[in-house]
Each structure stands twice: as C-alpha cells, then as structure tokens.
Input
Amino acid sequence: MRRLHVFLATLAVLALAAAPAFAATITIVNADGAGEGFNDPTPVAPVGGNPGTTLGAQRLYVFQYAADIWGSILPSNVTIYVNSQFNPLSCTSTSAVLGSAGPVTVDRDFPGAPLTAHWYHASLANKLANTDLDGPAYPEINAQFNSSIGTTGCLDGSGWYLGVDGNEGSLVELLPVVLHEFGHGLGFSTTTSGSSGNFLSSYPSIFDHFIHDGITSRHWDDPAEVAADRVASAISCNQIAWDGANVLAHTGDFLGGKIALRVSAPAGVAGDYDVGLAQFGPTPTTGGVTGTVVLANDGTGTTTDGCEAITNDVSGKIAFIDRGTCAFVTKVKNAQNAGAIGVIIADNVAGCPPAGLGGTDATITIPSVRITLDDGNLLRAQIGSGLVASILMDPSQQAGTDGAGRLKLYAPNPYQSGSSVSHWDTSAEPSLLMEPAITQGLSSSVDITRQAFADIGWFQGLLDVPVASAAHGLEPSAPNPTRGGTVIAWSLSRDETVDLRVFDLFGRQIAQLAHGPMTQGRHTLRWDGTDASGRRVAPGVYRYRLSTPSFTESRSVIVVH
Output
C-alpha cells in the first residue's frame, strides 16, 4: 500500500430503493480561524430551509447538508473526514473560482482493491478495505471555498445563496457547488496529468480505467496507451468518454435528445454537425426546420455578421451568419425579420464544439444554432453548390454522448488545468452536477454521479446501485396522453428532500413542480401542462424527473391539444 498527498480537481468557472446499508458518516472538520469562514459571526436571517442565524453557521449547515446527502447514498463503515474552510480565492467581476476539493491521500494494492496497481481516493480505498488505511492523522478530503463571492469586484451583483431549497434566483447556490467538489474528493477525478499524460508515480487511477480514448479506441490505463495518447485525447474536444457499465445503462434517465445541424446536400458534406443551442427561441423539434442555406448580407461593414437589417433574400431559407460584435439575439432577430426560418451562426475563432447562444428575446420564434469555425468554413464553401440543412432534435441520440452512447468527458483545447478530463462534457443536457460549470437547475441531486461511483467500486459487494422500487419511486402519470393536465404520484420509504421537474426532450427545464422535505409515504400532485411562466406547453413528449438524495427516476408524458 502506498500513500501520497495530492490536490486534485478545481471548479474554476462561472459563466455563470432505500439508501444503501452501512451508509457513510461524513464529518465536516472546521479548519477556519476565529471570526472568519465557518466562524464568521455576521448576523443573517434564516433562508431557504437553512436555520443558521450567523453567516458562518449557515455556511457550515450547507456543508453538513451536502455531506449528509453523500453519506445517505454511499456505503462505508469508515468515517470520512472533510477538512473544510472558506478563503478568498481567485475572482473577477464576471468569473470566479467557486471552490476546490480533492483527496488528501490516495492508495493502491490494499486488501479489497478491485483492481491492483491502480490509485483509489482515500475515502473509497477505506470503504473497500473496511479500515482507515492512512490513519487518523489524515482527513480523507481537503476542501476550500471562496469567501469573496459577492463582494465588490467578485461576481458583482451576485453572491452565495445559502438556502437548501433550490431557489437561488440570480445568486450562486452553494449546495450544488459543495456536492460537486465533494464528488471530486470522493472519487470523481483522475490522478493522471492530462497535460503531460504521466501517471502519478507510474500508476493509473481507477478513474482512468473507465476513460475511453476515442482516437485510439483504448482506455487510459491500457498498457498500449502511452502518455502522448492521453495528452492528445485530453484536448480532443469530444473524443474521450466514460466507459462504465452503470453510467452507460442509465444515461437515458438523465439526458435529453441531441440537437443537431443535419446537412443533406451536397453529398460531400452531408451528415450531422455538433452545435450549441440558443437560450432563446423555440427548441428544435424532431421534425425540425429544413431549407436551403443562404449567406446573409446586411450591406454594412462585415456584411455577413447580421448586425444590421439583412438586405438579401433569406425568406423561407436558413440564414448563415458569421459571429461578430453584436448580440446573438440581434443577429437572429434580423434574420427572422427578413423571413428566415432558422439561423446558423459560425464561430470566428477556432475551438471545440461551441457552447450555446446566450441572450433573451421573447419575440424570437425561429430556431438558431452555433457551429465551430472549421465547420463554418466547410459549409460556407458549399453554399453556392446548393447547401441544404435541417435544424432538429434527434431523440435517438442523447445529448452529451458519443456515437456508442458513452457519456463524454470534458476535453477542451487548450487543456484547462483542474477542469479538463475530471468533468462531464458541457454538451450534456439537462446539465449534470459534475460538469465544469455550475448552472441553474442544479440543487440537491447528484444525478448520474451515483452511477459513476458504482463503476469505480463504491457499491462493491452490493447487488446494484440503489434505485427506486415499488415502495420508493415514481408511478406512471395519468391520464397519459393528456390534454389538460396529468397527475404525478410517487412513494417515499422514508422522509426525504424531493425535487420534481419537467423537461422537454432536449432537456430544457419546463417547470419545477416540487422542491423540499417530504414525509414517508405516497404523494401526488397535478401538472396542468404549463411551463414556469404559466403558458401551455406545445404538444409533444415531456419527461418528469423525481430526485431525492437516495435515488433519481424519470418517466414520460405525452401532451396533446
């Protein structure tokens, strides 16, 4: 058995069945000094289920709340200690390091290790060995979080939300950030350097055993996979994915359909292209919109950026627009005003498959997507040859997965220390807890992280990952299909915090129906078929998802008019 001190996995972005037997005890060790961090005496009012009356007490409550969620999910007879503190961390007015956490020690070749010659994070190693391998002098996890969030010059206009009810509004909810960072400390990170490809002290981690390199078709711990292969895959944009059986079997429980730009002509460029979806306008449908692609011309300055009224004929067509200085909503609205049925926006700098199009405009009624610079150059060159494309949602593919259905890991180019590899890719929809950026809609659910932990050994010796049973889970809604509403029912085998949300097939959240503590027993509520703004949803298939600290389950309902 080897012991090493390591520091892993930093979250550094802000673009903004019953529980298992022998549930783990996770204890927060307050490492802050007098008068600061968890000991800050600043008076505050209780908020969102957090009863603390000082700033420090509320911070500590959220940490222990997150620890109890993970403890209710993971089985271990060995107490997990988390050395925790709040400190000023890197910050600007628009972005910040929210927090970081990692294992204090890692171990290999201990009694009970599923794989020899692989590193395991201390808490998992202790669980598998059924003893504290490194002794009481070493806590299992180190964690620190940013005490500057919300102060002048650090995420101006925002701040930590210390409630535990998911109602953060414009603030940053601390609970999912703590759950995320604890997830890293409990095992969701590699000990291998993605920038050099070198193993820690010449040995791979158990995490590496499940990293599939799509370039070589090998796993990171394969003896034939050399350091240079790992370096290449870590900046491959979308060529590394998780290859564990539990995650593969459950992606459909958490992910929606994939939005794609599907080119049908000319034949030489036909196929699907990865896109970023707009935050405004309608979600593409399974039928989508199809049309001839026309390069937009606004006649001013950079004539293809769509920043002014479009002067050429795009009526009934899909407008191709270059990214530029004006807002995305301006480009799309100008195309809509000119009669376009959809918009493709091509990036103007090289990069991986792009993030979405930000902005808000309730008057936009056509779909729009964003493509990479390389794809944009390729397709632009074919416009004169009769480029025909569709913007659609393909329910046969799941957002965030590769061609084999594996959930992709984050591999941007250039490499991002602390974020690359040890997170899910940002193309997953709905957003997952272990993506590199915290987004609204995340709160107390650990979603598919539970299945990843099953793959690396947390449930070794148990029959399966805890799942809903007849006495603990969702029932089919009724009526289904529905015209005016449907009744959703579920049962709890014990008192738990419940979160119930409705999503469209792409994974966009439509409505949050319930969030908060509920008692053991059967519960029902009626969804009236409206979204969060009270508007009736369009006809189609919707998924409703129930999450508690011990399980997540989803079902579908068809809405007809």
Remarks:
- The mean pLDDT is 89.
- DSSP finds eight helices and 29 strands in the chain.
- The two ends are 64 Å apart (CA to CA).
